[in-house]
Amino acid sequence: MIAAFSVTPLGIGEDVGEAVAAAVRVVRASGLPNRTDAMFTSIEGEWDEVMPVIRAAIEAVKAHSDRVSTVIKIDDRAGVTDGLTAKVATVERYLAEG
Fold first, then answer.
1. CATH number for the domain including 56?
2. What is the DSSP string of the chain?
3. Domain ranges, residue 71
4. Among 55, 86, 88, 95, which is 20 to 30 Å from 74 by CA?
5. pLDDT digit string (tens) for 46-58?
6. What is the number of structural domains in the chain?
């Protein structure tokens, strides 16, 4: 499965970069395939691998704020591996074809 998620601390002002970096550190330390962009972090693995990482990322943000907002989108498709790369490669292939 691929889970794209965003954890946003509330009530600490506009500069949330330090709190977000704490969450991304947790994800990167997990060893699971992941990508971070301007809006979400995506992580790939089995349900029982991914969900504890997301929970730990939320807890890392809670160290900076008593309140957090979390958005999670999950693509759970049996038999797919390397979906983070393969899905993007498919779109790029179609774009290259014109």
1. 3.30.70.930
2. -EEEEEEEEESS-S--HHHHHHHHHHHHHT-S-EEE-SS-EEEES-HHHHHHHHHHHHHHHHTT-SEEEEEEEEE--TT--SHHHHHHHHHHHHHHH-
3. 2-97
4. 95
5. 999 999 999 999 9
6. 1
